[in-house]
Amino acid sequence: MSTTPSQTPIDYDVLIVGAGFAGLYALHKMRQSGFSAHIFEAGNGVGGTWYWNRYPGCRCDIESIHYSYQFDEDLQQDWVWTERYATQPEILSYIEHVADRFDLRKDIDLNTRVTDALWQEEDSCWLVKTETGQEVRARYCIMATGPLSVPNMPEFKGLETFTGDTYHTGLWPHDGVDFKGKRVAIIGTGSSAIQSIPLIAKQAKHLTVFQRTANYAIPAANRPLNAGELDAVKADYATLRTRGKQYPTTIPVDPAGPSALDVSDDERENIYEEWWQTKGLMFQATFADLLFVDEANDTVSDFVRRKIQSLVEDPKVAAILTPENPFGCKRMCVDTDYYKTFNRTNVTLVDVKETPIDRIVPNGVLVGETTYDIDAVIFATGYDAVTGAMTKMNIRGRDNIGLREKWGDSPASLLGITIHGFPNLFTINGPGSPSALVNMITGSEHHVDWIADCLLHLRESGNTMIEADKSAEDSWMAHNQVVGQASIRSACDSWYLGANIPGKPRVFMPYLGGFPAYAEKCAAVARDGYEGLEIA
Ligand code: FAD
Ligand code: NAP
Q: What is the pLDDT of residues 488-500, one digit of tens each?
């Protein structure tokens, strides 16, 4: 227990909520910086996303050589990724290795869900309460609660009457599910569904896919990594990581050209074909203007639509699977044999756009006049993204203001890291940070490093309180909206905008200006003595 200058006993300098990639690194970094730190984690293990998501086919879609920590050279030299895109079990074993390697577990309470965080004005600290009745006081709080950690369960009438089994991809049973001989329904066709559908179709007696909005999915082109390939990366890993941070997405892939409109039709087609076969998610970066110029976007939307029509044998099914939205306005999906799965005789696609699911009935799913007989329903219905984990808690800042109320109209934050009215509280990948638009491990490490520098600055200057100014927060969020509107990414209903959750304010939450501009802004704030933040 440490004692603060105001003589108020506190339990920890820093209380961290969440033991995913972000929280674990925060714990390590805070300890290294000489702060006492502790994690509360709701799950019964470390890993966050990779602890909860155990559905068939779950894996990263940013290449593992990038989707991994970079803070420790020995760690990145020692770890051996076996596939271009690691599976969930491999990523989880990596995270567990990190927890052991840096002796993190002794400072983590598992099965401990934080319910309240209450600012104690007189003591300049946070009182944090948990579901298990624990109460601790911490000078600073880091909310590493995850941008995609609160599963979205839409309200389907009659769900309670269903006699079969139900699952959500983000809360998957740890010992797996055997669908052999079962008639399975999956609701949703986002990334989670697109990864799991091909594998579940191979196992189930019949799979019925309920699709509301068709999505674009790019072939992952996954394959085993060979030793020579990994060795080449490791020979100069640091340079690769540094290069990455110079790219908007933090992934060091150069576009084939600045504009899809600068090349002839034949040349463009050949380039798309080559990138389609090899680049996975980075297909979206084939030309630099694809997500900014409508005419350029039309060329790539058209290319992928034609691909879908060539992969799916039944033209009616292909038409339903063909997206109407512009390419890239929803988060891109990456697949292995997704479209071809609809050629299987045991797979049915149901379009629920015009005629939504009416209700769940005891033996299945009712759409219009048709009942689909089902033994198990999988909800691949996504997340209350970016803000959901924060607004689920009762977080009260200065003058007892609740975060839920503050974010009721718009999720305001300075840099996605600090919030006016909530001193000494930091978020990782919060609204107004690049979050899901970059490799999120790189983004998390960047946030944690910034916060550590900030806390060291406070300690060295004898201060114990920092809070974002309202005007700085407002101008950052205004800038965020201007940048967001320049991109096609904000052009349709998506979780980026909160559009998937009824009643959620429609604000494009991730910062779209690219990682280099964002990192420079963060650095400038620190360099200028934490300009835009009040220190006391
Ligand atoms: P999380 O991993 O979500 O961890 C947050 C933790 O906080 C959770 O364990 C949760 O239980 C805990 N928590 C939340 N609220 C509370 C509370 N009140 N009390 C206590 N604990 C709490 N990103 C990429 O960049 N590349 C990818 O390829 C990629 N693939 C993904 C695949 C899936 C299936 C999903 C769902 C997301 C994927 N993401 C990907 C995004 C992914 O969420 C991030 O990359 C990253 O894992 C987030 O780490 P985190 O530590 O910030 O949050
Ligand atoms: P998602 O992208 O939000 O997809 C949810 C799906 O459920 C959508 O198709 C949505 O349709 C549908 N849906 C929601 N409510 C519905 C309703 N009432 N009726 C019918 N359909 C409904 O969620 P996700 O697939 O879990 O992915 C979330 C994010 O996690 C991804 O965007 C990505 O960032 C990350 N992720 C990454 C990977 C990876 O490949 N590494 C895998 C999984 C997840 P609408 O589109 O019409 O709303």
A: 998 899 999 999 9
